[in-house]
Amino acid sequence: MTSRPPIDAAYRRRTVAAMLGAMLMPAFSASALSRIQPWPAKKAAPALALADLEGRSATLSAWRGQAVLLNFWASWCEPCVAEMAQLSHLAARHAGRLAVVGVNYKESGETARRRLSGLPFAFTTLLDRNGSAFKLWTQGVLPTSVLVDSSGQPRVSVAGEMDWSGAEAAALIEPLLARCATGSPCAPRAPNSSKETS
Fold first, then answer.
1. Domains in the chain, start-ordered, CATH in brackets?
2. Which residues, other chains included, contact 43 with Cβ-Cβ below 8 Å and sequence gap of 6+?
3. What is the pairing mode between strands 57-59 and 124-128?
């Protein structure tokens, strides 16, 4: 019987780390980059009164009767820019039922307009020039999206980049587009940390 040479402790740690990384890699997806939380039940919708790119004043009540996806973004934020095309397609797909409303953080209308110019479908963009809406609606993360039901009540907050074309996003949005049997807007459930089996 031959004896094995001793295994270097550093080599052992690297091997274990590599094996764990390989096992965990499939579990990570775009959703791992975002944090989905239900909107606090007792917290009403903060005020939202901002000018759009044309200088017209807009408030959240302008979209009453539709679900709203408020997306806080900036042109220098790479994850924000990565979401833009998906949000544009989402706005086109659900036009009249879901209003996608971009809220640009502390940039000029010209800067925001330049960033949006290449999108296939334009969505409403509001200018949060002093960052006050960002402070009221988010936890200080860009991008942040807030899903609001058709009565104007925020339901879910998504901090960080989200795959808006994926199943997880659809599970958040579809209930907002549907009406409950009672006639009141359905609120999506924010997924918990443990995966549910189907």
1. 35-177 (3.40.30.10)
2. 154
3. unpaired
Q: Report whether 169 contacts 34 (CB < 8 A).
A: no
In the chain, the N- to C-terminal Cα span, in Å, equals: 51
Q: What are the start-end ranges of the H helices in 108-191? A: 109-116, 132-137, 167-177
CA 115 to chain centre: 18
- Per-residue pLDDT tens digits of the chain, which is 198 residues long: 555 555 555 444 443 443 333 333 333 334 446 799 999 999 999 999 999 999 999 999 999 999 999 999 999 999 999 999 999 999 999 999 999 999 999 999 999 999 998 887 778 999 999 999 999 999 999 999 999 999 999 999 999 999 999 999 999 999 999 843 334 544 444 444 333 333
Query: CA–CA separation, 85 vs 99, rounded Å?
Result: 15
